[in-house]
């Protein structure tokens, strides 16, 4: 199989109609995103302050492709600590306006700013006192004029010149929604612990678990470092964790012996008498409040399958195994 650099060079040299189209579209959208980043105005800060201060939710409204983007923005906001809900612009006038209150703010998406179905939302918001933030490419549109604040999309060519199907414009909407969500996350000071509460399932939630939730606490394989190697091997076998820890007179972990260490000793025809002579000193350890994803990355980097979890004094309180984390979905 070709190496990464060789494969990249080979990929760059390839040229077919489909590949050329893909490169053109991606470059077009990347350039549009760069222009949008340069265009961010001070009003963005005002909008973030407004959304962070509201008592209710951010209602994200749109229709068609803008509606699909609005649904995604609402989900991203909610998952990053800003209560949010999607409102289908076409359903709003048929009862769904009831989800909007005076404590909410409405983020309305329309590239043209002339989506007729948004009219009912705009008039209702004016009656209940919910501020409207427009995300549009037209500063003089009906939507922009009715909104309290405007997130203005830069002029951008759609990727398909023949049909002008929403492509580049929806990419800009999506990215600007992400920027808003992250800015709100940082303003709120959302912690990783709080983020994990919003994501209890899946790999993302598993990575944000604390080591304390995954470690084995009972029957830890731990012996004084003076213990005979034979006793250390018995303890390792009984614990079925593939390791045994060596503790000093205070009970603090000072070394660790794994089944891999034992195999390497025998391959070198070395037969130490005590645990102290065979163990690896200063092994990889974790604190109980470290994140599982962080621990898995460190274990992979060190090439180890298990590690002790120690308290602030260095005393072992658990063992975490690579297989435990993989079963929990961390990997």
Describe this structure in words.
The protein has 331 residues and is an alpha/beta fold. It folds into two domains: 14-190, Glucose-6-phosphate isomerase like protein, domain 1 (Rossmann fold, 3-Layer(aba) Sandwich); 211-327, Roll (CBS-domain), CATH 3.10.580.10. 47% of the residues lie in helices and 16% in strands. The chain has 15 helices and twelve strands. The strands form three sheets. It has a five-stranded parallel β-sheet, sandwiched between helices. The chain has a four-stranded mixed β-sheet with strand order 6-7-8-9. A three-stranded mixed β-sheet has the order 10-11-12. Strand 7 (243-247) and strand 8 form a beta hairpin. Helix 2 (17-39) packs across helix 8 (168-188). The longest helix has 23 residues, at 17-39. It is elongated and about 85 Å long. It starts with a helix and ends with a helix.
Major β-sheet profile? 5 strands, parallel
How does the overall form come out from the CA principal axes?
elongated
Strand arrangement within the widest β-sheet reads: 2-1-3-4-5
Q: Tell how many strands the DSSP assignment holds.
A: 12
The first-level CATH class of the largest domain is given as Alpha Beta
- CATH architecture classification of the largest domain: 3-Layer(aba) Sandwich
Q: What is the helix tally?
A: 15
First and last CA, distance = 25 Å
Radius of gyration: 29 Å
Reading the helices and strands in chain order gives HHHEHEHEHEHEHHHEHEEHHEEHEEH
Content of β-strand = 15-25%
- Which structural class fits the helix and strand makeup? alpha/beta
Number of domains: 2
């Amino acid at each position: 199989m070709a190496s990464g650099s060789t494969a990249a060079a080979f990929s760059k040299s390839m040229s077919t109609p489909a590949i050329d189209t893909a490169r053109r579209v991606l470059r077009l959208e990347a350039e549009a995103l760069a222009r949008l980043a340069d265009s961010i105005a001070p009003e963005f800060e005002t909008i973030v302050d407004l959304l962070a201060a509201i008592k209710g939710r951010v209602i994200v409204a749109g229709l068609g492709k803008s509606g699909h983007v609005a649904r995604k923005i609402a989900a991203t906001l909610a998952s990053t600590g800003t209560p949010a809900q999607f409102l289908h612009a076409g359903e709003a006038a048929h009862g769904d306006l009831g989800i909007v209150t005076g404590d909410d703010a409405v983020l309305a998406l329309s590239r043209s700013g002339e989506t007729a179905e948004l009219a009912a939302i705009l008039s209702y918001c004016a009656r209940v006192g919910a501020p409207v933030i427009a995300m549009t490419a037209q500063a003089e549109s009906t939507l922009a004029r009715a909104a309290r604040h405007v997130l203005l999309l830069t002029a951008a060519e759609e990727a398909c010149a023949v049909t002008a199907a929403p492509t580049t414009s929806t990419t800009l909407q999506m990215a600007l929604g992400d920027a808003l969500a992250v800015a709100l996350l940082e303003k709120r000071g959302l912690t990783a612990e709080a983020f994990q509460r919003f994501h209890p399932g899946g790999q993302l939630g598993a990575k944000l678990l604390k080591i304390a939730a995954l470690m084995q606490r009972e029957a830890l394989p731990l012996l004084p470092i003076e213990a005979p190697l034979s006793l250390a091997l018995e303890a390792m076998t009984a614990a079925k964790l593939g390791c045994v820890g060596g503790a000093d007179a205070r009970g603090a972990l000072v070394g660790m012996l794994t089944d891999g260490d034992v195999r390497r000793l025998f391959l070198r025809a070395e037969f130490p008498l005590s645990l102290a002579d065979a163990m690896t000193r200063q092994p990889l350890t974790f604190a109980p409040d470290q994140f599982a994803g962080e621990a898995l990355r460190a274990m992979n980097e060190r090439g180890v399958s298990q590690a002790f979890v120690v308290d602030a004094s260095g005393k072992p309180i658990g063992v975490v195994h690579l297989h435990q984390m993989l079963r929990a979905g961390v990997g």
